[in-house]
């Protein structure tokens, strides 16, 4: 007599267990991505605050503006890490950086970061000049400054700017520091990727776009 081989397969309980495990794994991945995004936002805010703190601390110590401080020979004469700086400002009481120079290190932009590093208020090489002197933010874009009358400001306004910020993160940064609106308050943004120079303020944040986010100093 021939015997039929018993057919094997997954029971409904086993399938349910597998689906639960898959759901937990997917939930863990999504939660992990959210934690990473939140950490980047927090790091970006820390970057802004670090530049602000360094800026005011420099003024307290030297009674001058970082980037505008000069001349070069007088800076180098301070000795220590100052001996090898390569950029000095004109000491006219204004940190002059156009909107177009925000992320290319032009004007007194690279001076600004050289001086803060030489003074020990920011980490990094105090001898690097040009765009290479600009720090990177947590989204891979640059950190620069400008005193241009852009983003809806009617007069020259000194700002620290972060380039290449994703829309969701830009909105979070604005909400946590300011009012969450792209064209009002102390935090404003220009739509554009790849370190777009600040210009016209965006009317709203879109998760499908990238932004240059600027905060007043």
UniProtKB/TrEMBL annotation:
The keyword Transmembrane helix applies. It comes from Hydrogenophilus thermoluteolus. Keywords: Membrane, Transmembrane, Transmembrane helix. Gene3D superfamilies: Glycoprotein, Type 4 Pilin. NCBIfam families: IV_pilin_GFxxxE. InterPro entries: N_methyl_site, Pilin-like. It comes from the Bacteria. The keyword Transmembrane helix applies. This is Prepilin-type cleavage/methylation domain-containing protein. The chain crosses the membrane at residues 12-30.
């Amino acid at each position: 007599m021939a015997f039929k081989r018993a057919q094997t397969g997954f029971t409904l309980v086993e399938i349910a267990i597998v689906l639960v495990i898959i759901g937990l794994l997917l939930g863990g991945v999504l939660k992990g991505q959210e934690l990473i995004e939140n950490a980047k936002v927090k790091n970006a805010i820390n970057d802004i605050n670090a530049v602000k703190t360094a800026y005011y601390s420099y003024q307290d110590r030297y009674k001058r503006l970082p980037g505008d401080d000069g001349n070069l020979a007088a800076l180098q004469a301070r000795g220590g890490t100052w001996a090898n700086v390569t950029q000095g400002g004109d000491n006219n009481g204004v940190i002059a950086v156009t909107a177009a120079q925000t992320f290319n290190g032009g004007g007194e932009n690279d001076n600004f970061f050289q001086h803060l590093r030489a003074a020990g208020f920011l980490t990094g090489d105090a001898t690097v000049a040009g765009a290479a002197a600009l720090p990177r933010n947590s989204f891979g874009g640059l950190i620069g400054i400008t005193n241009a009358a852009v983003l809806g400001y009617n007069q020259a306004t000194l700002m620290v700017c972060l380039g290449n910020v994703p829309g969701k993160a830009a909105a979070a940064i604005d909400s946590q520091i300011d009012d969450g609106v792209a064209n009002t308050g102390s935090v404003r943004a220009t739509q554009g990727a790849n370190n777009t120079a600040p210009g016209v303020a965006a009317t709203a944040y879109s998760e499908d776009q990238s932004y240059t986010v600027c905060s007043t100093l």
